[in-house]
Specification:
With 201 residues, the chain is mainly alpha-helical. The chain has eight helices and four strands, in the order H-E-E-H-H-E-H-H-E-H-H-H. The strands form two sheets. It has a two-stranded antiparallel ribbon. A two-stranded antiparallel ribbon has the order 3-4. The radius of gyration is 22 Å and the shape is elongated. This is EFHD2 protein.
Length: 201
């Protein structure tokens, strides 16, 4: 019945946020100053970066999110900067967070972490700043083909179509790579079986 269906829907577990190994395109949840939660899709909001770049940034974020709580806090950032070979003072670390901390919770969410690379790509970081050092030393190539150069709406639309097709091409290339790996694995298994049967004779 309708009532049962609604009850079933209500009882359904909420969508999880980005878990370990989550694909970059998956929707995650981000806190906001009002305490409400809003949906955040990295691939949707940070269109200037490719899926590969976003995946690299996500991997880096997870690597330093030692508490696995979806945030990089002051101590985790301190450790990150030491590992990258650019240790910061306590005040320096606080300033790094402050520069991209939109919800003022004194820690970096994944979205705020991505803002560092957006600012780096746009040339908005001071060369002697901790954030500039983080972006430079993380070895993530932030060169972009964003819509920044579009002079008008028409150009922006063409650029958006180009970005969408590039996105599709990347997905296709990923699928092809997986298919190729699966085929190679199949061939290796077949060759191994053949080898086994030779020994059994």
């Amino acid at each position: 019945t309708m009532a049962e269906e609604l009850a079933g829907r209500r009882g359904r577990a909420p969508e999880p946020g980005p878990g370990p190994g989550s694909p970059v395109g998956r929707v995650g949840f981000e806190g906001s100053p009002g305490g409400s939660r809003r949906v955040f899709s990295p691939a949707g909001e940070f269109r200037e970066f490719s899926r590969r770049q976003l995946r690299d940034m996500e991997r880096l974020f997870r690597q330093y999110d030692a508490g696995k709580d979806g945030f990089i806090d002051l101590m985790e950032l301190k450790l990150m900067m030491e590992k990258l070979g650019a240790p910061q003072t306590h005040l320096g670390l606080k300033n790094m967070i402050k520069e991209v901390d939109e919800d003022l919770d004194s820690k970096l969410s994944f979205r705020e972490f991505l803002l560092i690379f957006r600012k780096a790509a746009a040339g908005e970081l001071q060369e002697d700043s901790g954030l500039h050092a983080l972006a430079r030393l993380s070895e993530i190539d932030v060169s972009t083909e964003g819509v920044k150069g579009a002079k008008n709406f028409f150009e922006a639309k063409v650029q958006a179509i180009h970005d969408a097709s590039r996105f599709e091409e990347e997905i296709k290339a990923e699928q092809e790579e997986k298919k190729k790996q699966a085929e190679e694995l199949k061939q290796r298994k077949a060759a191994f079986k053949e080898l086994q049967s030779t020994f059994k004779q």
